[in-house]
Amino acid sequence: MKITLLGHATFLIECAGQKVLSDPYFGSWGNPAFTRVRPPAMQREDAPKPDLVLVSHNHWDHIDGSYLRLLGKDVPVLTPYLSQKVTRLLGARHTVGLKVWQSMRFGELTVTAVPAVHLTATIGFVIEGEGQAIYFAGDTFYHDFMVEIGRRFTLAAALMPVTTFRIPMTMGEQGALRAVQALRPQRVIPMHLDVQPRLPLLRTNHSAAGFKQRLLAAGLDPQVVELTNGQSLEI
Question: CA 226 → CA 8, 54, 84, 91, 209, distances in Å?
């Protein structure tokens, strides 16, 4: 299994002969309220064609309509059941709406939708293949459903946010610490690090380094893998 961070929450996951792309976002500017502080590893036109796309939710920094319109109708785009039609309107040509705990098989790869809590309809995903399971959290706050995810799956890696803003949008350092306690992953890959509020007063000092310090203070020892855009981890 090979995991490559393309930027923010966009990963290319290569496993069991399948290429899976998560939460595609190739914009370089951001929006009027948020700036993108690090560019993606590549332009949308240069991204490898995936066999499967995962869209956890439809916020602007997790779905790239221009990219989705480049894909053929043969590429399934997995999305929350409640937002399937909106995902199609935003550019996806072949949407598959999943309910929580629903699994689908793609060749030797299995994808399971898992709960998530955010400001809109959302899910996370567990991808299983080659005897490994990884958890892609999308945007979520900590919640006790993570205990159930940790019970059902032995996670080789958790791809999850570890920082937030003064108006919380997802897990910050403390929430991410509690998530690790519940999920018990062997590795954590921090994500959701490429955008920040344009207004300095809305920023926090949360960071991947601060998250690592909290893990150490709590006596937890998963490997924290900080990928730069374009960098890969092989499991």
Answer: 12, 22, 32, 31, 9
Dump pLDDT digits (tens) for 55-68. 999 999 999 999 99
Tally of domains in the chain:
1
217 burial type by CB count under 10 A (0-12 exposed, 13-18 middle, 19+ buried): exposed
For the full predicted model, state whether its pTM sits above 0.90. Answer: yes
Its domain, for residue 48, covers 2-234
Q: Is the distance from CB of 135 to CB of 155 less than 8 angstroms?
A: yes
From residue 235, alpha-carbon distances to 85, 130, 187 in Å are: 35, 10, 10
Asked if residue 235 lies in contact with residue 197, where contact means CB atoms within 8 angstroms, the answer is: no
β 157-161/132-136 pair status: parallel
What is the distance in angstroms between the CA of the first residue and the CA of the last residue of the chain? 5
pLDDT in tens, 17-55: 999 999 999 999 999 999 999 999 999 999 999 999 999
What CATH number did the domain enclosing 109 receive? 3.60.15.10
Residues 10, 136: Cα–Cα separation, whole Å: 10
Instruction: Give helix 208-217 / helix 173-183 axis angle, nearest 10°.
Output: 50
Q: What angle do CA 156, 107, 69 make, to 5 degrees?
A: 95
Give, in order, the Cα–Cα distances in Å from 94 to each of 51, 72, 158. 12, 8, 27
